[in-house]
Amino acid sequence: MRGEWVQAGDARLEPYQGLTDVALRRRVEGKQGLYIAEGAKVIARALAAGHRPLSVLVSPRWLDSVAPLVSPDVPVLVAPEDVLEDTAGYHVHRGALAAMHRPTLPDLAHLIRDARRVVVLEGIVDHTNVGAIFRSAAGLGADAVVVSPTCADPLYRRSVKVSMGTVFQVPWTRADAWPGALTQLREAGFVVAALALTPDAVSLEDFAAAGHDRVAILMGAEGDGLTHAARTAADAVVTIPMAGGVDSLNVAAASAVAMWALR
To answer: What pTM did the predictor assign?
Structure first.
C-alpha cells in the first residue's frame, strides 16, 4: 500500500500543526484555505461531498484503510504515532487526518432560494455545539444553516468531528451582514423565530401549530443568548416550555427539539 514516511520537522506536516490551538488554526487555515477532517468516516464524507484533499496524514495501522479513499495524486503521509501526536498536539484516536481545501461558500440568496427550514446561529463560539447542531440539522431535515460573522467555524476540526461529517452535507454559509441577513430572510418569505426567554415569548408548540410555510430558527450562544438587535429583527420569540425548575436546554439540544417540532 502506498504511503510516504515523514518525521518531525517535515515541511509537509505544517497543515497539521497544533490542532488544539484555535488561534493558530485560524491563522494557518485562513492563510492556506484549508480545514482538517479527522477519521476515515469523516474523510470519506468530505470526499463524497466533493471536497479536495491537499494531503492525508495517518499512523501506520490506518494506512491500509485510509489510503484507498483518496486518488493516487494525493500524498498519503505516514508518521509514527508519537510524531502524529506531537504534531497535532493531542492523541489522534482515529489515526487519520486530512488537510482539505475549503469549499467556496454560496451567497445567502442562493442558499435559501429553495429552502423551507433554515437554522440561523448567532455568536455560538463553542465548536462542539456548532457540530452537534449541524448533526441535528442533517438528521431532522433542515435545508440550510446560516452562521453569523461571530459564530465559530463549522469546519474547525472539533465541529467537523462532532457533526460526524454532516457539516459537509447540510448546505451552509456565513452571513456577511448582521443582523441584515435576518432582514434578507424575512424579505424572502421566512418567518424568523428567535429561541429566547422573554416575557412575550410564545411556546414552540403554539408556534409550530401555526404552520408557517418557511421558517428560520434563530438561536444564540449559551449564557449571553441572542443580541437585542437579532431579537428585534425576528418576527417572533419562541420558547421551549420546561419543567423541574430548569429554565432552558443546551443550545444544541434546543436546536434538535425545535427542528423536530418544525419539521
So the answer is: 0.93
